[in-house]
């Protein structure tokens, strides 16, 4: 049996591993996640261990005596230590997953149902119902959620657990907000994906956006699944899309679906890649490379990609990404590679696509490198690489003053790049698109962007050096928004909380080393959040330079600071 502390550490690492800095974290604990986490304790495929029972026994042994709940001690906030409350919070989310199928809008019934499920998870009698002994003080557990949220922000991620807006939902909304897809929802989605792939309506090598846009046009019988798929909150929208895509990537297409087998879905069978665009600064040639994303819940270990008998090691680039493979590819994608070194992931897929939305490197925008690190932000340039069949649609978007670009550049007979693109209007409703997929990809889903430019940014450490902070601009279509700016070490005392003008730099006080949080509100709703880390000079980490892509210049190869003579037959390079 794993101990409470072992589960606590493993759960926290599981839900943040493979996530890039600035990503929103959901503690979406269900049976499948617990089975996956438990299997890692022994790094085996042993199905004889019931890891769900092992987890609940560990929590009960630590937090339950008789019929009384004792919140885990030593759960204070320290940015460099995982809070000891994570496993207990995970038990609360597991209870939320168990009752999420009880579709009711009556908040008193919802609260009763939640604590009934929590009692079951903790092994308590449910005769009395309601809050168990030890949790009778309403909201006593809220501090644990706040500690978890502070730890996430302190390490560069964004939290998703929040209190509800009514008396009855205020505290149970924390665990309910973390529960995404139920097991029954996963089964419905898998059946649907298999049907569509078998009928040729979907490919086996789709990407996240394609699956997300497609599934939102489907009709589901479950109200919970319908509401989840149509989520309008920009933060939860991405989390739901990722959860749906994880179902898709976990499907073994060579095996028939068997809902009666009782075998839980564990992990993802395939990892996906994006395009990594490099432009030759001398010759102007453009090449696209395979840029692998780290698997969700990835733990360190050597992964290898096999291509035409050659083995390529996957090496860390930044949080959430491996270094690009020196495998030039066509933008059309639809390519798969064998993966070795991971128990669950068997292949790497460059999805089949008709267009790619690429943004400049957020850690070095002057590098000239573009990839799919994130969605384009308001007021920021991006590059659209698409098939020429979309040209008429792009011209229509420009005529409607929805988007503009600097110039277009034909890549070949089939593909064209639109360079210096920028979304210039929020008024996309009422447009009848010729290509719905491109319309969905470009239509802005956010009301504001927090732009951090300039200063001295520290690559791979997600922050700026003390004394050289970035210039802060809130970019939005509205003329003004409410800005809340706080030091996460004192979240109850905001540094700023005022109405500001948008689209021009704002003044912020001199900042000492620490972690800060921007929140922008538009029409009373949260429109954007962003973490700002200020680093001490002695916090700088010395890193070995990454291997650059070579550039051929005449008979020489320029590679970083190394110039090699290109070898020809009968000659030796120096």
Task: State the shape.
Answer: globular
How helix-rich are the residues, as a percent range?
25-40%
Query: How many domains make up the 3D coordinates?
Result: 4
Mean pLDDT: 85
Task: Give the percentage of residues in beta strands.
Answer: 25-35%
Distance between the termini: 59 Å
Number of alpha- plus pi-helical segments = 13
Structural category: alpha+beta
- Outline the low-pLDDT stretches: none
Report on the biggest sheet.
13 strands, mixed
Radius of gyration (Å): 25 Å
Total beta strand runs: 31
Explain how this protein is built.
- Strands 5, 6, 7, 8, 11, 12, 13, 14, 15, 16, 17, 18 and 19 form a 13-stranded mixed β-sheet that branches. Strands 21-22-28-27-24-25 form a 6-stranded mixed β-sheet, with no helix packed on it.
- The chain has 4 domains: 4-178, no CATH class; 183-250, no CATH class; 269-442, no CATH class; 448-539, Immunoglobulin-like, CATH 2.60.40.
- The chain is built from 13 helices and 31 strands.
- It is an alpha+beta fold and 574 residues long.
- The mean pLDDT is 85.
Which properties best describe this structure?
574 residues, alpha+beta, six-stranded mixed sheet, 13 helices
Explain the layout of strands and helices:
Layout: H1 4-16, E1 24-25, H2 31-42, H3 51-63, E2 64-65, E3 68-69, H4 86-99, H5 107-122, H6 142-154, E4 158-159, H7 173-176, H8 183-198, H9 208-215, H10 223-229, H11 234-249, E5 270-279, E6 286-292, E7 303-307, E8 310-314, E9 316-318, E10 321-322, E11 325-328, E12 335-340, E13 347-350, E14 355-360, E15 370-371, E16 382-387, H12 391-399, E17 403-404, E18 407-410, E19 415-423, H13 436-442, E20 448-453, E21 457-458, E22 463-465, E23 471-476, E24 480-487, E25 496-501, E26 505-506, E27 514-522, E28 525-535, E29 551-553, E30 556-559, E31 562-565
Parallel strand pairs: 1-4, 5-13, 22-28
Antiparallel strand pairs: 2-3, 5-6, 5-15, 6-11, 7-8, 7-12, 9-10, 12-13, 14-15, 14-16, 16-19, 17-19, 18-19, 20-23, 21-22, 23-26, 24-25, 24-27, 27-28, 29-30, 30-31
Helix pairs in contact: 1-2, 1-4, 2-3, 4-5, 9-11
């Amino acid at each position: 049996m794993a101990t409470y502390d072992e589960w606590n550490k493993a759960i926290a690492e599981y839900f943040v591993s493979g996530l890039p800095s600035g990503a929103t974290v959901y503690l979406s604990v269900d049976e499948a996640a617990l089975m996956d986490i438990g299997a890692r304790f022994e790094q085996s495929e042993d199905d004889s261990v019931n890891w769900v029972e092992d987890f609940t026994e560990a929590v009960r042994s630590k937090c339950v005596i008789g019929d009384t709940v004792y919140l885990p001690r030593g759960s204070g906030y320290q940015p460099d230590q995982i809070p000891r409350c994570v496993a207990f919070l995970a038990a609360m989310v597991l209870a939320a997953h168990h009752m999420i199928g009880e579709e009711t809008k009556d908040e008193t019934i919802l609260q009763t149902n939640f604590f009934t499920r929590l009692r079951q998870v903790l092994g308590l009698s449910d005769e009395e119902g309601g809050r168990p002994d030890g949790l009778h003080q309403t909201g006593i557990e809220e501090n644990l959620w706040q500690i978890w949220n502070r730890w996430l922000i302190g390490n560069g991620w964004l939290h998703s657990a929040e209190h509800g807006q009514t008396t009855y939902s205020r505290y149970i909304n924390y665990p309910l907000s973390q529960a995404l897809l139920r097991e029954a929802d996963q089964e419905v989605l898998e059946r649907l994906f298999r049907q569509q792939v078998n009928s040729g309506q979907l490919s086996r090598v789709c990407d996240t956006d394609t699956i997300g846009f497609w599934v939102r046009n489907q009709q589901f019988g479950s109200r919970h699944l319908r509401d989840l798929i149509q989520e309008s909150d920009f933060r939860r929208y991405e989390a739901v899309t990722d959860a749906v895509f994880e179902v898709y990537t976990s499907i073994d297409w060579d095996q028939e679906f068997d809902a009666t087998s009782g075998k839980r879905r564990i992990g993802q069978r395939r990892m996906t890649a994006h395009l990594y665009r490099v432009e030759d600064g001398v010759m102007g040639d453009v090449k696209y490379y395979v840029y692998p994303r780290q698997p969700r819940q990835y733990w360190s270990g050597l992964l290898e990609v096999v291509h035409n008998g050659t083995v390529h090691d996957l090496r860390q680039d930044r949080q959430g990404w491996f270094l690009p493979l020196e495998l030039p590819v066509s933008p059309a994608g639809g390519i798969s590679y064998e993966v070795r070194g991971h128990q669950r992931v068997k292949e790497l897929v460059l999805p089949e696509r008709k267009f790619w939305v690429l943004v400049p490197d957020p850690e070095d925008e002057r590098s000239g490198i573009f990839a799919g690190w994130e969605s384009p932000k308001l007021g920021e340039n991006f590059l659209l690489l698409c098939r020429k069949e979309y040209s008429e649609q792009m011209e229509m978007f420009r005529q409607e003053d929805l988007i503009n670009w600097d110039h277009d550049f034909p890549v070949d007979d089939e593909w064209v790049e639109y360079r210096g693109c920028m979304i210039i209007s929020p008024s996309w409703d009422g447009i009848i698109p010729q290509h719905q997929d491109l319309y969905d990809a470009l239509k802005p889903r956010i009301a504001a962007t927090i732009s951090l430019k300039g200063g001295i940014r520290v690559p791979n450490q997600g922050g700026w050096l003390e004394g050289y902070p970035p210039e802060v601009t809130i970019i939005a279509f509205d003329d003004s928004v409410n800005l809340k700016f706080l030091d996460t070490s004192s979240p109850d005392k905001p540094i700023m909380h005022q109405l500001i003008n948008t689209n021009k730099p704002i003044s912020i006080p001199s900042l000492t080393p620490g972690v800060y949080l921007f929140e922008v509100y538009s029409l009373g709703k949260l429109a954007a959040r962003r973490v700002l880390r200020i680093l001490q000079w002695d916090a700088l980490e010395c890193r070995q330079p990454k291997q650059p892509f070579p550039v051929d210049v005449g008979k020489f190869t320029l590679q970083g600071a190394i110039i090699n003579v290109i070898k020809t037959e009968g000659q030796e390079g120096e």
